[in-house]
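User: My instructor asked us to take a sequence, write out its structure as tokens, and then describe one feature of it. I'm not sure where to start. Here is the sequence I was given:
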Amino acid sequence: MKKLVTSVVAAIALSATSAFAADVMPVKATKVVAPAPAPSPFDIAFGAVIQSDYNFRGVSQSNRGPSVGAYVEPQFNTAFGTLYVGLAGYSIDWPNAYGFSSPTAEIDFYGGWRKTWGAFSLDLGVLYYYYPKELGGIDSDFVELYAKASYAVTPDFTLGASVFYTPDLLGYSQFAPFNDVGGIYLSGTAKWVTPWKAGDFGLFISGELAHWFLDNVRQQPSLASVDPSYTYWNIGAALTYKMFTLDFRYHGTDMDRRECADFLLVTAGNPASKWCGDTFIASLKFDTTLAALK
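Assistant: Let's start with the prediction itself. The structure tokens for your sequence are:
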């Protein structure tokens, strides 16, 4: 019996010693990973373009010659959408020899708000076109209000619609006997990202059909009013590689040379009257953001 009691006491003591030893054994420290910092609500989008012709709604702005441009757009992202301001510039050629004011460039100041709800997105803003160092005391600056919407029918096919409004296009009201030439530009777009892929290369096809509703203008008091409104369209394909886009596009309007001259407020024989004709344009662009570069 003594032996049995002694054995039990020894077993209990050994068990307690083992448990205590386990409690005091060093445990390997677990590495604490700090949570990733929340992304900054601030970002900056920027890009540039070189193109064989700067075409604005079907009308050349660079005398059918090449043009370069660039933009920078600071953004503030919130749960209620993105607030943005932007500055863009393009080289243009409005020759004084053709009777134009020959500004050194087109500078665009813009700002607005955009937001996406699932497949639908909306963009509202204001855009000011500034033409520095014009000759002859001419001031072609003008402002537009815009609303742009798009809907992704599928992840690869998107439809868009936009409206732009200006109370006085290109400051036409400064030229007596013209009245303010207000205008509403309505546009519909479509874009299909094709299934073709080759590494980081992709391909999309897109197009636009638009009409610019412009108030009547008169070239001379003795002439009847002319309606400068016209229809514009473009269609093309673009090869993409990361932040780069190589675009090949055909542009056209329903204006003949006489109607183009009326729109530009020049005589029918003016060489600029060819600026509204159909044309093929190639462009190379890059677009990215600071966040995408990190």
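For the description part of your assignment, you could build on this observation: Residues 249 and 281 are 5 Å apart (CA to CA). Try explaining in your own words what that tells you about the chain.
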